[in-house]
């Protein structure tokens, strides 16, 4: 379907583990839980405050970072992430998973259950369990409230208050180079005066993340296997992977993770087809230099199981579509789509191919016949996009008004709705949709300006004007709540 890249972010955090030695017995994860000490941060930062701060930061992130807002990829990483969250303990906030275009192998977590993955992870993760191990580690940083606990510690022992730390946190999100020098712990860098729990936090996240990984049905040995890959890179490179720069690996931490993984019962886990589809999609459509979909990778997938072979063919279709060779793209995709006509990965690409050839009617017919249309937001966005491209903007707006009501934080929906309303000449509704898009990107002043203009264009005293004015009041209240973070950013 359509996809949008946004602009710049930071670096950091992820999983750290190591390869292993044998153990004589296997431990069940239920007998190996750490005590829940995440609530020790409550005197500094309540859960409600963390949620509010997370809302502020993710809006800044949307406005300044190269987030990959691809509905298919967003759906995949959130489904994978929630599978892990469902097996985590001490979950106090909702979780949201994001993907950023970045060549460096890394990931990081911050307030409000937000976890960000670098696209390079798809290049280096051999299987779904390895990717899940990174996510489980990050989820554990959130459930244990490591950032809040670090702020509690610096409040006791440093002259800065926890509010004063927010400037460096935001700096880490906005500028990778500056952020790497400014932060440590969950967000990045090495300045111990700001956050002083680095090794303790990492060990907790390793241990708890390993338990989450096992309970969710993934291979616990994926953690040491993934770190082996990172260490191999470090041995033969003048500059180690970013993840190793931001996460020190003391021997005690390595041996602890290795021993725990080896004490868990071994399990054979097959990666899902969606993992391989996501891998080739990221590398084929959002490559940034080193992380590209190569012929070597596709040939390797061709030699694998059926899931990998399907992904290889899908990857070749993607490459052809990106090169506007629509005939070749359809030749590669058609056998896959015929065998699995309801597969959203295939339907999405078929829509792109049709729209690229100005065959919107074909895409609309195919999508309207898909059984999963009513329940799959990816297909709904595809259909709305096809309606917009075909000039049927009223039908697109009908879909998108329902969609944005249910998915208020999805910038794709608001962007398409603005296009649909503009095509119909509904200036006030277009402005309102664009205002929501700006608000999601942290540009609240501009959002209020657009809503004010929308309010002035409708009948005085009308229900529509009341709605616009009420939304303006909500955004002004949001500005008041966010002001303390802006002062320290």
From TrEMBL:
Per the entry, the cofactor note is: Binds 1 zinc ion per subunit.
Sequence positions that bind Zn(2+) = 137, 141, 202
Q: Where in the cell is it found?
A: Periplasm
- Which GO molecular function entries does the Swiss-Prot or TrEMBL record give? metalloendopeptidase activity; zinc ion binding
Q: Which InterPro entries does the record associate with it? A: Mito/Outer_Membr_Metalloprot, Peptidase_M48, Protease_BepA, TPR-like_helical_dom_sf
- Any one of the GO BP annotations: proteolysis involved in protein catabolic process
Group of enzyme by EC: hydrolase
- The catalytic activity of this protein is classed by the Enzyme Commission as 3.4.-.-
Recorded hits in CDD domains, A to Z, give: M48C_bepA_like
Q: What does this protein do?
A: Functions as both a chaperone and a metalloprotease. Maintains the integrity of the outer membrane by promoting either the assembly or the elimination of outer membrane proteins, depending on their folding state.
Report the protein name in the record: Beta-barrel assembly-enhancing protease
For this protein's source organism, the top of the classification is: Bacteria, Pseudomonadati, Pseudomonadota, Gammaproteobacteria, Enterobacterales
Q: Which gene encodes it?
A: bepA
């Amino acid at each position: 379907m359509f996809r949008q890249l946004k602009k710049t972010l930071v670096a950091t955090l992820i999983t750290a583990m190591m390869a292993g030695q044998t153990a004589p017995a296997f431990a069940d994860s239920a007998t190996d839980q750490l005590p829940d000490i995440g609530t020790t941060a409550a005197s500094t930062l309540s859960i409600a405050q963390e949620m509010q701060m997370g809302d502020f930061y993710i809006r800044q992130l949307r406005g300044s970072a190269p987030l990959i807002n691809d509905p298919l990829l967003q759906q995949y990483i959130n489904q994978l992430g929630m599978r892990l969250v469902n097996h985590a303990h001490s979950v106090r906030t909702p979780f949201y998973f994001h993907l950023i275009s970045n060549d460096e192998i890394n990931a990081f977590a911050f307030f409000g259950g937000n976890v960000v993955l670098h696209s390079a992870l798809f290049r280096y993760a051999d299987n779904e369990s390895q990717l899940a191990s990174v996510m489980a580690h990050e989820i554990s940083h959130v459930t244990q409230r490591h950032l809040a606990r670090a702020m509690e510690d610096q409040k006791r022992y440093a002259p800065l208050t926890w509010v004063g730390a927010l400037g460096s946190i935001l700096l880490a999100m906005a500028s990778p180079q500056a952020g790497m020098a400014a932060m440590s712990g969950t967000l990045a860098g090495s300045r111990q005066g700001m956050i002083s729990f680095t090794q303790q936090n990492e060990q907790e996240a390793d241990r708890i993340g390993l338990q989450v990984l096992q309970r969710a049905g993934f291979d616990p040995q994926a953690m040491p296997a993934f770190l082996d890959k990172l260490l191999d890179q470090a041995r033969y490179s003048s500059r180690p992977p970013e993840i190793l720069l931001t996460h020190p690996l003391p021997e005690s931490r390595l041996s602890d993770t290795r021993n725990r993984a080896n004490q868990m019962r071994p399990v054979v886990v097959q990666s899902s087809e969606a993992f391989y589809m996501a891998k080739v999609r990221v590398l084929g459509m959002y490559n940034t230099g080193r992380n590209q979909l190569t012929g070597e990778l596709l040939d390797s997938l061709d030699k694998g199981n059926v899931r990998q072979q399907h992904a290889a063919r899908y990857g070749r279709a993607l490459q052809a579509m990106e090169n506007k060779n629509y005939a070749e793209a359809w030749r590669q995709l058609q056998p896959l789509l015929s065998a699995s006509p309801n597969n959203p990965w295939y339907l999405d690409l078929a829509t792109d191919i049709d729209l690229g050839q100005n065959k919107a009617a074909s895409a609309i017919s195919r999508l309207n016949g898909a059984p999963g249309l009513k329940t799959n937001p990816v297909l709904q966005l595809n259909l709305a996009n096809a309606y917009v491209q075909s000039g049927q903007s009223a039908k697109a707006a009908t879909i998108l008004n329902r969609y944005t009501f249910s998915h208020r934080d999805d910038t794709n929906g608001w962007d398409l709705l603005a296009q649909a309303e503009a095509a119909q000449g509904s200036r006030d509704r277009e402005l309102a949709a664009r205002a929501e898009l700006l608000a999601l990107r942290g540009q609240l002043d501009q959002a209020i300006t657009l809503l004010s203009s929308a309010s002035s264009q409708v009948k005085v005293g009308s229900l529509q004007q009341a709605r616009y004015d009420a939304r303006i009041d909500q955004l002004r209240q949001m500005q008041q709540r966010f002001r303390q973070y802006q002062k320290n950013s």
